[in-house]
């Protein structure tokens, strides 16, 4: 069973978009701080390269990997992967524009030194609750200020799940200030 934080256990009781199913399966994967890299994260690069999704210039999990996480999730969910997916802001061209961020959507954020990408699981008045990689050096769900969001993008669906809706959540937990 996936170790989902109590606040988000409701996700296990509904039919999820494939992006969220695939992302939740990776919850808790964390990088090796300092010398060395997590073989799982490096394996994502290799899996994508083998599938014809070029991942170049990624040799160590000290390199920001939120885009790599988004790419492996989309690949495993049967969704397209953007060109040069390691660059978080490239995800602003993914799928189609979402008028209102909803479960499973890709969210792109600005941050000092670049960008960040993750998946929408909910929101409170001021923050999105984002399931992403390289959040405190691991795959986690964290709160990121809505004001930092520059794009909400809907994955392409043949049959969009009924759960692709906005979810209002309690404003609990720390607000992330830099996901690198």
UniProtKB/TrEMBL annotation:
InterPro entries assigned: CHP02594
Upper taxonomic lineage: Bacteria, Pseudomonadati, Pseudomonadota, Alphaproteobacteria, Sphingomonadales
Top-level taxon in the UniProt lineage: Bacteria
Name of the featured protein: TIGR02594 family protein
